[in-house]
Amino acid sequence: MYAKIMDRYFNHAITADLFVACLFFLADYKFGVFSFAYLDKPSAMDFISNLIGTCISLAGFILAALTIIVSFKSNIKARRDYHNIESALELFLNTKNYERVVKFFKKAIVEFIIIVMLLYGIWLSSANLDSNIISMVLFSAVTMVVLTIWRSLDVLFKVMKTENLNRQ
């Protein structure tokens, strides 16, 4: 059951992240669960600047992880006979899970690019926006960044864990 939920979450990550951020706001609005402190505009603009830099750095990190995985794949020849595979990592790179991981990392990079574009849009139109709206967008962006980092690290650690399987 947990695996099915996680598969759906991974397949629709951007939509799910937005849904989670909306749930936080709904919980605060209806039930007063959270006590959001809205930032003033100068503080929000500084935070947006920092968050944009963080998103670009994290996209670079994921791109580096993707490059490493792709370079491993290029160094291991494709095999149709799974009985002659020497390591768990080689088995992983010769299955459809490899394509799923590459697709997942691509989606994570796209999500960071979407967040950066959204934040730049907010930054450019900040003179016309209320500080409460800017704070809510910032909270949504931070939620999406945290969830994307969590998913990326989860997948990366699982890929790294496959290499340890052949040592046991």
Describe the overall structure.
Keywords: Membrane, Transmembrane, Transmembrane helix. This protein is an all-alpha fold. It has one domain. It is built from six helices and no strands. The two termini are 28 Å apart. The model has no long low-confidence stretch (mean pLDDT 83).
Entry summary:
With 168 residues, this protein is mainly α. It is 80% helix and 0% strand.
Write out key terms for the chains shown:
single chain; 168 residues; mainly alpha; 80% helix; elongated
Point out poorly predicted stretches: none
The structure class reads mainly alpha
Distance between the termini: 28 Å
Work out the count of structural domains. 1
**How large a portion of the residues is in β-strands, by DSSP E?**
under 5%
Q: Rough shape?
A: elongated
Which range best describes the helical content: under 10%, 10-25%, 25-40%, 40-55%, 55-70% or over 70%? over 70%
Keywords: Membrane, Transmembrane, Transmembrane helix
Architecture blueprint of SSEs:
Layout (H helix, E strand, L loop, with lengths): L1 H10 L1 H19 L9 H35 L12 H6 L2 H29 L6 H35 L3
Helix pairs in contact: 2-6, 3-5, 3-6, 5-6
Keywords: Membrane, Transmembrane, Transmembrane helix
